[in-house]
Design goal:
One of its GO terms (molecular function) is gentisate 1,2-dioxygenase activity. The chain is built from 8 helices and 20 strands. The chain has 364 residues and is α+β, with helices and mostly antiparallel strands. A hairpin with a 2-residue loop joins strand 16 and strand 17. The protein is globular. The two termini are 27 Å apart. The structure holds 2,5-dihydroxybenzoic acid (GTQ) and fe (ii) ion.
Length: 364
């Protein structure tokens, strides 16, 4: 489902060679005729059914330093207006020939909002999430529910939910956005519309309505919730707070070898990922520990909330510091080594691969 052009069609050069090989005039004429008819011979193609995934996206890390400095400069230079209504820097995978995507299936970006700025309401079919690597002060309105955003929080913006971002604080704030946009684009299913014009800043409760209703107590969900809520394919809990995530990771560390813990963010009302296209997980690797090497199908976008160390990605070693974002392309070998305790947020398109029977994972 790569959004870039297919890798199986013969290149113009290959097509010339193909003609050359077809020295017989009949065959030569035939190749000309099928090309005219917009048909292509499978017997001349290669690279279509490969033994393992051939992935255009390459492993890459965007350093916190670059992300912060360059987003802050956009904050100085580029206003937020209707039309271009988000101040967003998309991470462009060096393997994708300039496409503004972190992989063939996912969009990842940093978004920067100055004090007193508003990114106006809209909605779209691609699903999105925000993860806050640093700071606080912004709230996002999700279909009218104000959700305060702070360090370590995961905020969902599921498909077709209106969202607008407000920064009533006195300091700028930046956060990570991940969307399933390239996947939805490859499926020719992108819709977008602007929302009602923004309201004045309102008082924002530290706990959104969604949290008070669906995140009140672990394993406790309301009865009598309308079918409209249950029929939606995403979690009705739209924010997962760092305090709970942190406490859960600490608790999980008491089990196993105590060197690492991993949790999955989940729909509290059903055994499902938070959104139909995006899985979210958080991993803690204790300083001094090295994880097993793993590979899985689908893209993983990883963000370092805390700690330092290195990640091995398909034979490439990258150093990690708080605020760094890296991509693990499909089926790429991945191994973490923590120098100081690493907390790494990961989101992936795994629910899509699982739904289609395409998810594979191998741990060495
Ligand atoms: O915050 O609404 O990174 O619509 C890309 C598209 C963020 C957003 C992005 C978006 C948004
Ligand atoms: Fe959006």
């Amino acid at each position: 489902m790569s959004a870039t052009s297919g890798c199986w069609a013969p290149t113009p050069k290959a097509r010339k060679q193909l003609r050359y090989r077809a020295a017989e005039p009949d065959l030569d004429a035939y190749y000309g005729d099928i090309e005219q008819a917009h048909l292509q011979p499978l017997w001349e193609m290669s690279g279509l059914l490969t033994p393992t995934p051939v992935v255009k996206a390459v492993p890459y890390r965007w350093s916190a330093d670059n992300l912060q400095k360059l987003a802050a400069r956009a904050g100085e230079l580029v206003p937020i207006d209707r039309g271009g209504d988000r101040r967003v820097l998309a991470m462009s995978n060096p393997g994708l020939g300039g496409a503004p995507f972190i992989s063939g299936t996912l969009w990842a970006a940093v978004q920067f909002l100055q004090a007193a700025e508003v990114a106006p309401a809209h909605r779209h079919t691609p699903g999105a999430l925000r993860f806050v690597l640093d700071g606080d002060g912004v709230y996002t309105l999700l279909d009218g529910d104000p959700v305060a955003m702070s360090r370590g929080d995961l905020i969902l913006t599921p498909s077709w939910v209106y969202h607008e971002h407000h920064n009533p604080s006195s300091a700028p704030m930046m956060w990570l956005d991940v969307l399933d946009l390239p996947m939805v684009a490859a499926l020719d299913a992108v819709f977008f519309e602007e929302g009602p014009s923004e309201e004045a800043d309102q008082s924002v409760s530290p706990r959104s309505a969604a949290e008070r209703r669906f995140g009140q107590g672990p394993g406790l969900v309301p009865t009598g919730v309308s079918a409209a809520v249950h029929d939606r394919p995403h979690s009705p809990l739209t924010v997962y707070r760092w305090a709970e995530t942190d406490a859960t990771l600490n608790s999980l560390l008491e089990f196993g070898d105590g060197q690492q813990a991993e949790l999955r963010y989940r729909d509290p009302t059903r055994d499902r990922d938070v959104m139909p296209t995006l899985r979210c997980e958080m991993r803690r690797v204790v300083g001094g520990h090295t994880t097993a090497t793993d590979q899985q199908t689908g893209t993983r976008v990883c963000a370092v909330l805390d700690g330092t160390g290195t990640v091995q990605l398909g034979g490439q070693e990258l150093s990690l510091a708080p605020g760094d974002v890296f991509v693990v392309p499909s089926w790429c070998e991945h191994q973490l080594e923590a120098t100081s305790t690493l907390d790494i947020f990961t989101t992936s398109d795994a629910p899509v691969l699982e739904a289609l029977g395409l998810f594979r994972r191998k741990v060495a």
